[in-house]
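Many introductory courses stop at the sequence. We go one step further.
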Amino acid sequence: MASPNGTQQPLYMLATYDTPQGPRAGMVVGEALHDAAEATGRADYATVLGILQDWDRADEALRAAAAKADPNHDMRLAHASLRAPVLYPPTIYCAGANYSDHVAEMSKGQPPEPDPHTLGLKPWHFIKGSRCVADPDGTVQIPEGCQKLDYEIELVAVIGRKTRNISIADALSCVAGYTAGNDLSARDLSRRPHTADTSPFKYDWVAHKSFEGSGPIGPWIVPARDIPDPGNLGLKLWINDEIKQDSNSSFMIYNLAEQISHLSSRMTLHPGDLIMTGTPAGVGAGRGEFLKSGDVVKIWIERIGELHTRIA
């Protein structure tokens, strides 16, 4: 399991790990993994959702515990079985067409898309089901009938405060932390067969974006205070060690604060909600290349680390 990359090592990262009694919240400090509830003395911190529901106090408690944690703790990160850091998020919001380089890639041969800000447009999102998440180092099955399974590296924001109608200026204050994600997409299942192309009922977003395992995330959550600028992070994705996506979150069309503010104007955001913030250029649809059984997808996001997924 790779360590986070960046100029400054976070004091701790928040993870979910398997135990004989079931998944538990873990506090990663260096190469050691500590049980979060035991380290803080808070029984309600046994799950990551429990921690996120009390985020402001929980972050301080975890930082205090991490500062005095034994670096030789006998539970080693390398031997742990990590799960998705938020196992069953209340809602997963996914930004569509939100990187300028990706929009240009997908619009080849067409007139350039204007900046949607100039048209008065707002961010747009679709939703994945909470059971779409897949574990780090996990295996995702290609959906039945899919021949064009695509990959999309995404910076993922994890909400840590109940939020409604928040301003752009204050929007990042509700973010608990960040993790890496892959918005897997069954491109050839996006359109319903035997339905006219002009029909408003042509598109099948569940088959396209919300199949089981379509949202690998992880390997952990880096607290927001350790990533002061989510709008300037390197992002890279490899398939079988061949790089396919190499970009930076600065290419977002709508930055994270704009996304959060807009989403909160439509509905209340809750602790544990995930916002997948869009993907840069280099996706399979733009290349005419798609995932196949046996492929290994590796994602790296600056200051967060690596997420690996096997395709079967």
